[in-house]
Amino acid sequence: MGDGNRAEEQIRDWYERYSSEIFRYIFVAIGDRQQARDLMQETFIKAFKSIDSYRGDASPRTWLHRIARNETIDYQRKKRPLTYVLENFAPIKSNRPTPQEIIELGEEMGQLYENLTELKKEYREVIILRKVKEFSTRETASILGWKESKVKTVLHRGIEELRKRMGKEESEYGTFKQSN
């Protein structure tokens, strides 16, 4: 079996194991189901084309998430340069889930997702990678191209901001509930 066949087989295996996870990661980042599917496919195409550069320093899962992150960033830059710039300084409301998606996620997960989309992009990314996808600090640093100390600091700040938002929602809900 030639190297091309081995590479194709390896990518097929990784696709079966990680495609759903990669799709969900991209979907949370961009909020568009069809585009997330397209970018997930592009991630695996790019992985296939560059499999020779995979040295095994990181797990295949980490390597694929890094490619997915880069594909997502490239997509956002190309699609709407102004929106990409604004997204780095303020959240874009168009990333909110549709009512149907909230129902699919369940109420608590829907609220968490809603609050995540309102966080700064770097907070959102590190929380998703560390707490939702359960990557280690080292793996997260590799995916994001950061130092481990930055991952820890941004994660701490992001979780604090998420807690504030979640607490604010709960107190607003409690006040509303009591007045009825």
From TrEMBL:
Q: Which residues cross the membrane?
A: none
What are the entry keywords? DNA-binding, Sigma factor, Transcription, Transcription regulation
User: From which domain of life does this come?
Assistant: Bacteria
Listed InterPro entries: RNA_pol_sigma-70-like, RNA_pol_sigma-70_dom, RNA_pol_sigma70_r2, RNA_pol_sigma70_r4_t2, RNA_pol_sigma_r2, RNA_pol_sigma_r3/r4-like, WH-like_DNA-bd_sf
Which parts of the sequence belong to the RNA polymerase sigma factor 70 region 4 type domain? 111-162
Query: The RNA polymerase sigma-70 region domain covers which part of the protein?
Result: 15-80
Work out whether the entry's keyword set contains Transcription regulation. yes
Record family assignment: Belongs to the sigma-70 factor family. ECF subfamily.
Q: Which PANTHER family match?
A: ECF RNA POLYMERASE SIGMA FACTOR SIGL (PTHR43133:SF52), RNA POLYMERASE ECF-TYPE SIGMA FACTO (PTHR43133)
The protein's name: RNA polymerase sigma-70 factor (ECF subfamily)
